[in-house]
Amino acid sequence: MRKLTYYVACSLDGFIGDPKGDASSMFQFMDEEYAAFMNSEYPETIPSVAREAFGVAGVPNKRFDTVIQGLGSYRLGLEAGIPSPYAHLREIVATRSLTESPDPNVELVAGDLVARVRELKAEDGPLGIWLCGGANVAGQLADEIDELVIKSYPQVYGSGMPMFGADFAVRDFALEDVRSFGNGVVVRTYTRKR
User: Fold this and answer.
1) Predicted model pTM
2) Backbone dihedral angles phi then psi of residue 79, each to the nearest 5 degrees
3) What is the mean pLDDT of each run of 10 residues along the chain (194 residues)?
4) How far apart are the first and last CA of the chain?
5) 8 A C-beta contact, residue 109 and residue 129
6) Which of 35, 137, 127, 53 is nearest to 90 (CA)?
7) Measuring CA to CA, which residue among 177, 189, 144 is closest to residue 3?
8) Are 70 and 94 in contact (CB under 8 A)?
9) CB of 93 closer than 8 Å to CB of 132
10) What strands, in cross-sheet order, belong to the sheet with 64-70?
11) Calpha distance 100→147 (Å, rounded)
């Protein structure tokens, strides 16, 4: 069974962006040490248009072969003229408002997202599924998440878009790994306790 990993950047107080979802304040932490880690451990999470600049053009996917995101996250690339931001992955966008895919590589899911994720998890293959965001999609898929990789940036937002847009429910995870960087970023990996 393939696993669903919520690989996400957030502030120290658990927000993935400001109230509108903008997380550009976190970009300042992309220094050489941290970029080297991202490039070696999660090369497929670098958008297709930036892979050459980051030195990962042609690098095989290491952890994921599929990415899932909501329309809010997907729209960032779409508005920049990039209809397939992760062309090196199978792209799935959860949306009820887009009715026609702007790119053949992008599958739109308007119906039961949990059922679609369960189908993906049941497929054979060595690579997993990356939940890119946003909060509403993470909330819908909270019970399906097998792993959390949380990139905590040394900022406090006070309010904004939470990691999960979901009703209250306790879900337990076990800490597997912690990696800290000179820029103050801490990457924690957790596995779901089932």
Assistant:
1) 0.96
2) -70, -20
3) 97 94 92 95 96 94 97 91 96 96 97 97 97 94 98 97 93 98 98 96
4) 14
5) no
6) 127
7) 144
8) yes
9) no
10) 106-109, 90-94, 64-70, 128-133, 4-11, 147-153, 186-192, 173-180
11) 31
